[in-house]
């Protein structure tokens, strides 16, 4: 069975990811001499960002362990997309530090390009190249950034497109696919770069309801396979079943961090209680 075959999304047992490493364990010396946890893959410390007068990210400290799935939720405008965009340096930060796998994100240059390639990104709006076929979309980054030869890139692209259930669509152009299929191509394209972590920014928000599950199913499968994922989503079923941790943001701050069970059953802050009452009762 390929990932896209299941028509009905049945989240697996919620306890299934408890074996995942949580951050903060097994402290070791990092390559730059500082002490860090062996399993930490993405570390943001003291990150601040402004858009003019707007303090959009305020003293963000966030550590994501290898293999962890972190769901980021919060009201519109709270800074969720900006947070994702700073992690792969689509946005600069004003102060603080972001490191990927022990290496601080540099401001620019080759090293930045290399580190950025380790961070996959899947957007709400797919962002596929309209004038390239599905297959070409998934081959391109492998050839240009990872320097693979064409045959190897094509083989990998076909394998990944099969894996997300769109293997028969290789020669089509994005506009000839449904939204759910396009988003699965976008996930295959991110996977093709062999990233250490994939950031998903509301990957199902632009989809018709009947296509949401086929995309969530692919994401659920990636989570089960141990991919490190940061997922901004309003899909609370996914958060409950796939996340190791929920990060709740409001007004540019991380207000609460908890396991999904703790967060949904017993939110601590008034902001989170208010937010949950709005999204869960509508
Ligand atoms: N390039 C930009 N220039 C100026 N302001 C921006 C820019 N990008 C985002 N903002 C502002 O920063 C704030 C946070 O935006 P962001 O997109 O990160 O929020 P979000 O939590 O992802 O919201 P949503 O749930 O609506 O996607 C908003 O007030 C937004 O208007
Ligand atoms: Mg957003």
From TrEMBL:
Cellular location(s): Cell membrane
Keyword Transit peptide on entry: no
Known catalytic reactions: a polar amino acid(out) + ATP + H2O = a polar amino acid(in) + ADP + phosphate + H(+)
Region called Disordered, residue ranges: 1-31
A Pfam family recorded for this sequence: ABC_tran
GO molecular function: ATP binding; ATP hydrolysis activity; ATPase-coupled polar amino acid-transporter activity
InterPro entries named in the record: AAA+_ATPase, ABC_ATPase_HisP-typ, ABC_transporter-like_ATP-bd, ABC_transporter-like_CS, MetN_ABC_transporter-like, P-loop_NTPase
Keyword hit for Amino-acid biosynthesis: no
Broad class of where this protein is predominantly found: membrane
GO cellular component: plasma membrane
Domain ABC transporter: from-to ranges: 42-276
Keyword line: Amino-acid transport, ATP-binding, Cell membrane, Hydrolase, Membrane, Nucleotide-binding, Transport
Domain of life, source organism: Bacteria
Matches recorded under PANTHER family: AMINO ACID IMPORT ATP-BINDING PROTEIN, GLUTAMATE_ASPARTATE IMPORT ATP-BINDING PROTEIN GLTL
UniProt family annotation: Belongs to the ABC transporter superfamily.
Name listed for the protein in its UniProt record: ABC-type polar-amino-acid transporter
Taxonomic source organism: Streptomyces clavuligerus
